[in-house]
């Protein structure tokens, strides 16, 4: 019997590239155990969303309230179950509103920045949750990381009867400008998550207004299929009798069977060929932006691929460890000498040296710096990244100019 390649990727829809290092559960025949909801036909646009912002139980209450007035797909945990789960892991909800089909990521209270950044990159839009704390450092960091990951659609939910103070409003407007967002494009909903309980009717006030704004504001992220194909590698599997399969979410471009591809990693660029593409128990001739796929590669060993590497159109990326970057720092005038750079699914240590500092008090906080990575990476002009020091967020940036090639 022909081994089904999609057995390694059939659960990707549920985890939405969660960074899980375990293979999907298998039956005795070698096929993945699937949820019936994964194979159902959808007649509504599919939108990936998440709630970012201030930490605490308000975010989980809001997630439960939203799911409670929508139509669940599969099992939606209770508020107590959800609060227990998000203490240690990402949780994925699935439901439908009147207009859209949603895959909803609930972020854990504590998680590595690299895992948060990877999940943000899969979102089409996010809800920024604020409460009486105003704008916390966590809310600032997650909003900036979301914009670095390409999320441009944001809705603000203020969980406070009295709304935000004038100082908090001014701080929020400043944060929007730094994140490159326009206030007029951002809906605000004020309400209370404490009214959110499962089983609420669709006229449940503020939560219903939030869902209505989600339906009108959030759309599947537009991607240019004409760009060079690129897919960050999320996981790698060895399939008996077939070979190496890499899984991930197509970030841009289209990949076809028999396409010439590069596996770009710190040790160099390995050329290969696409032998097959599969997703959700279906074999594909091609896959495009937003698709979660498994790609069977020709002439590749297990040691040639790893999470954090990139699968790309042949010749489209340059391997380099030095570049000039435009960066935005949370604390202007404090450019760190070293930082961890989060690219796609990879984390690379690097050294920084300031070249131009355009961040006097009250400015945008944007500076220029030369960066030297500890190991080469597949770079391109405009590639966004997040910087952290000792696991703490310090800023975002983008590659302005590659200075040398390996």
Blueprint (SSEs and pairs):
Elements: H1 12-15, E1 46-53, H2 57-69, E2 71-72, H3 79-85, E3 91-96, E4 101-106, H4 113-120, E5 125-130, H5 137-148, E6 154-159, H6 166-178, E7 188-191, H7 205-217, E8 230-232, E9 235-239, E10 243-249, E11 255-256, E12 260-265, E13 268-279, E14 282-284, E15 286-287, E16 292-297, E17 310-313, E18 318-329, E19 338-343, E20 346-357, E21 366-379, E22 384-389, E23 392-402
Parallel strand pairs: 1-4, 1-5, 5-6, 6-7
Antiparallel strand pairs: 2-3, 3-4, 8-17, 9-10, 10-16, 11-15, 12-13, 12-17, 13-14, 13-16, 18-21, 18-23, 19-20, 19-22, 20-21, 22-23
Explain how this protein is built:
This protein has 406 residues and is α+β, with helices and mostly antiparallel strands. It folds into three domains: 5-18 and 224-313, Elongation Factor Tu (Ef-tu), domain 3; 46-217, Rossmann fold (3-Layer(aba) Sandwich); 318-402, Elongation Factor Tu (Ef-tu), domain 3, CATH 2.40.30. Helices cover 17% and strands 37% of the residues. The chain has seven helices and 23 strands. The strands form four sheets. Strands 8, 9, 10, 12, 13, 14, 16 and 17 form an eight-stranded antiparallel β-sheet that branches. Strands 2-3-4-1-5-6-7 form a seven-stranded mixed β-sheet, sandwiched between helices. The protein starts with 11 loop residues before the first helix and ends with a strand. The model is unreliable at 1-41, 196-203 and 359-364 (pLDDT under 50).
Quick recap:
The chain has 406 residues and is α+β, with helices and mostly antiparallel strands.
Keywords summarizing the entry:
Elongation Factor Tu (Ef-tu), domain 3; alpha+beta; 406 residues; globular; 3 domains; 7 helices; Rossmann fold
